[in-house]
Design a protein that fits this description.
The chain is an alpha/beta fold. Helices cover about 30% and strands about 20% of the residues. Strand 6, helix 7 and strand 7 form a beta-alpha-beta unit.
Length: about 220
C-alpha cells in the first residue's frame, strides 16, 4: 500500500466518503493523516467528519480559519505532512479541483503516491468504460499525475442493491483493464456486505456517510 494516496474522481463519485471510510479503515493499523484539498465544493467535504475521524486517531488537515468558507484556502500543514512517515490521504475536489495537485506534484512524485480514481457508474459521465477513461484523461491532464488505480463506488444512495454494486464492478474492471491499472476497492453500505462478501474481493464498508439517512 502506498504511503501517500491521492483520491480523485468526477463530481458525484463519492470520493470524499471513500476518503473518510478509507482513513478510518487504515487507522486500525496505521497512523493516518487525511488532508482535505477540496477547494471547489463547499459541501460534503472531509472536514465535515472531523470529529469522527479525530476520535479514531486520524489527523484531519484543512484551513481551519476558513473551514466553512467557499474559498481556495490550503493549509500549510499539508506540506509538512508530505514529509512524514505516515499514511497520507489527499481528498481532492472534483475535476477542476485536481489542478491544485500541481502545487504538490514534486513531493507526490518523490513519495511515489498512488492516484486513485473513484468511480460511480450511476453517474452520467462514468456510466461506461469510455466515460471512465475520458474522466481519467481529464484528471490526469489537470493534475499532471497519472491515475494508478480505480475504486468501484457504484451506488444510488438508499436505492443501492448488491446487484447494482456488482454491475458497477464489471464496468470498472473492464475500464481498469483498458487503463492497465488495478481495482483496489469495491465500496458498499454495511447492509449489503453479506450479499457481496463471496462475490467481490477487497470490500470497503462505507460505515460513515455525509448523508446519515443513507446508512442502512
Amino acid at each position: 500500500m502506498e504511503e501517500a494516496i491521492v483520491v480523485v474522481g468526477d463530481y458525484g463519485s463519492g470520493k470524499t466518503e471513500f476518503s473518510i471510510n478509507l482513513a478510518l479503515h487504515l487507522s486500525q493499523n496505521h497512523q493516518v493523516i487525511l488532508a482535505d484539498l477540496d477547494i471547489v465544493n463547499p459541501y460534503f467535504r472531509s472536514r465535515e467528519a472531523v470529529k469522527t475521524l479525530e476520535a479514531q486517531g486520524v489527523e484531519v488537515i484543512f484551513s481551519r480559519e476558513w473551514g466553512q468558507a467557499d474559498l481556495p484556502a490550503l493549509s500549510p500543514r499539508t506540506d509538512s505532512a508530505l514529509r512524514e512517515d505516515k499514511v497520507l490521504i489527499l481528498d481532492v475536489g472534483g475535476d477542476d479541483g485536481s489542478i491544485v495537485l500541481g502545487r504538490y506534484r514534486k513531493q507526490l512524485s518523490q513519495r511515489q503516491a498512488g492516484i486513485w480514481q473513484v468511480v460511480n457508474c450511476m453517474r452520467p459521465f462514468t456510466a461506461d468504460v469510455e466515460g471512465i477513461m475520458d474522466t481519467a484523461s481529464r484528471l490526469e491532464h489537470k493534475s499532471g499525475l497519472a491515475v494508478s488505480a480505480l475504486v468501484n463506488n457504484t451506488n444510488l444512495g438508499r436505492e443501492t442493491t448488491a446487484e447494482l454494486v456488482l454491475e458497477g464492478a464489471k464496468i470498472v474492471d473492464a475500464a481498469a483493464a483498458r487503463l492497465d491499472v488495478p481495482v483496489l476497492w469495491h465500496c458498499a453500505r454495511p447492509a449489503l456486505l453479506d450479499q457481496l462478501d463471496a462475490r467481490l474481493d477487497n470490500l470497503l464498508p462505507m460505515e460513515v456517510s455525509l448523508f446519515p439517512a443513507d446508512i442502512t
